[in-house]
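User: I've been going back and forth on whether these two constructs are worth ordering. Before I decide, could you fold them both?

Assistant: Sure. I'll take them in the order you sent them. The first construct and its structure tokens:
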Amino acid sequence: MLHGSGPGVTAIANWRAVIPALAADRRVIAPDQLGFGGTATGERRTYGRTAWTDHALALLDTLGIGTVDIVGNSIGGAIGLSIAAARPRPCGAWC
């Protein structure tokens, strides 16, 4: 679950109301995106869709997760599309 952007935004602020329901049937991962919440270190960085996409992909790689369903809010939706473009899944019987 990828949150949107804006002052004070975090994953828990965006997703706390829906995480319990989704977690009943699925593994839910809702990270703070680079520069937000727990990742805001004050370090000078270049932010943007590429950096946020790379950060999310690195998290998936670190956790050993290959196939995911992504839910994104605002810029989180755009990052989800970037992840899909970076790692497309071969089409199955549904397409």
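The second construct, handled the same way:
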Amino acid sequence: MRSKQHHFAGGIVRCVTIALMAALPTSTFAQSEVQAVVLKHLRTSRDFTLKVADQMPESAYDFKLTPPQMSFAGQMVHLSQAFDEYLSPIFGEKPNPEKPASMSKKDVIAFVRRSFDRVIEKVSKLTPAQVSKTFNTDEGTMSGLELLMAMFDHTTHHRASAEMYLRAKGITPVEYQF
């Protein structure tokens, strides 16, 4: 399902996560701080992603840079569906990603918003034990924190791809937000 780039990025995410985990105290306070930071950046990522999605004209939502690539709408839907894949192990669920009503601009934007809102709600319920626990995934074993970081990395990758679609259409993407 994932490309070699995802595997390479995953390795980087794991290295950074291990370094961060080693640097952070292991107290519940530190882990709840991690949760607060993740929630803050999920909200920023949601708002930024929605701005990018809104910039593409409806008539170009099916635009692809090259035939084998996902459409612009496909990029937005894929990054939103992947939340389920990253969070499912943490919550002991099987991935069951939803789909938008259609690939129209209106339906895709509504889907992206709902997907981010669901992930924000789920992350707000994470326990310190879930953040530090190790889970078996299709990519190997990862801690809850690693899964959260991989989720962000995946979102950034596909949002950046969508920004290139905007540029190809002569649209300057909104300014980066972090």
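Notes on the second construct follow. The helical segments are 4-23, 28-55, 72-87, 105-124, 128-132, 144-168. Confidence is low (pLDDT under 50) at residues 1-9.
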